Amino acid sequence: MQRYRLVLTALLWSLSAALAQPQAPLPKVEPILPGEVQPLAPGQLPPPVLPQISLTPAIPEVRRISYASNGFIEVAAALVLVPEEDTNPEYLLSKAQQVARATFAARPSLEEVDLSLYSAKDYAGFGGPLPRFTAAVNKARLPAFLALNLGSLHSYDHLWLNPGDSVYGPPAPYTSELERTPRFQGTGAQVRAQQLEQTAASQQGGVLGNLLYHGDPSRPLAALTFDDAPHPLYTPLLLDALRRARVRATFFCIGRNAKAYPYFIRDLSREGHEIGNHTYHHVRLNNLDAASIRQEIVLANQVLEGITGKPVHFFRPPGGRFSPTVLSVVRELGMTMAFWTDDPADFDNLGDARLENRLVSKLRPGGIVLLHDNVLQTTQVLSSFLSVAERQGIRLDTLGALVRRAAPSVTSAQP
Predict the structure, then answer these.
(1) Where is each NodB homology domain found (predicted)?
(2) With CB atoms counted within 10 Å of each terminal CB, which end of the chain scores lower, N or C?
């Protein structure tokens, strides 16, 4: 009976869509092909080179200091690699204070300097072992940061000192695969069933089972979502742009990133943004067993809920890859798996104008916009896109708001 209702709903949607004003097509659920290798997207360009800050005199442990702007403020991110024998808290704090002072002196226009101090021995990039010390230093709080000592670290709420947790290695290779279309690994019949549910969701809106493909298309409300948060350079820029526009969003956070930068998660939550789960290590889940899938989701939930004190309702699989096992685990955890209707491929580094045009062309009532937290061009076009959405009469908000305003017959899953 349920399948019959889905078929009927899909047919009604097809008829109404034919009579309605045409919109850009939705990202259709597709099967995962055996042996598939993720290629570079057509036309994908390397990211723009970020400008760098040079310190005089140089500090040997500083690998690089990059900075970026969202059109309103500038933020710098400093990568500092210290010898393993110097990773004691006293040295880390002293070195962070030295770098913060020198960076603001070298570029006074900065609003914030974010510091990430790693052991040079085990540094393996942003997806590798966690840093030993991180801090976000706003210009106005620089004197307070410089006055810190080991006995007063607790008084500065934008600082994290690694407690020595050794949970570094992911159970499967970290995936840098981008979210293009939802990819379902299952039988032909199971793939068709997912496509049918997606079509029905486009008409009905809200959560079907434990899946969210589309909000209520009859209401001028869409969800704004960001994947891969938090990031020590881009998250503060996005927060600032959203604050200026008075827009809330859902941030799908990677657990390991949240653990190293918990103060950004607190900032997001305090300002009304919603925190979602994007696994702990950002791994592809479709080939993992149920226990490994559960561990990735539960570990991320523990980190996120431990920071905010709030339950996590929504989950998005990295790369959009899922399977019957992933569906089952997410359902058992009482969570909703959320997808998207509007993916402008911001990681393709299209240029500001093309990225904004793609965003606007796919914007729709009940839509779910997918962007990434760690893309420079996203921070640069966000304010303009939010203004266009407002002029078109479509309000952008969190997934939770989208579900709460869905049709009365649709209810969201509760954790």
Answers:
(1) 220-397
(2) N
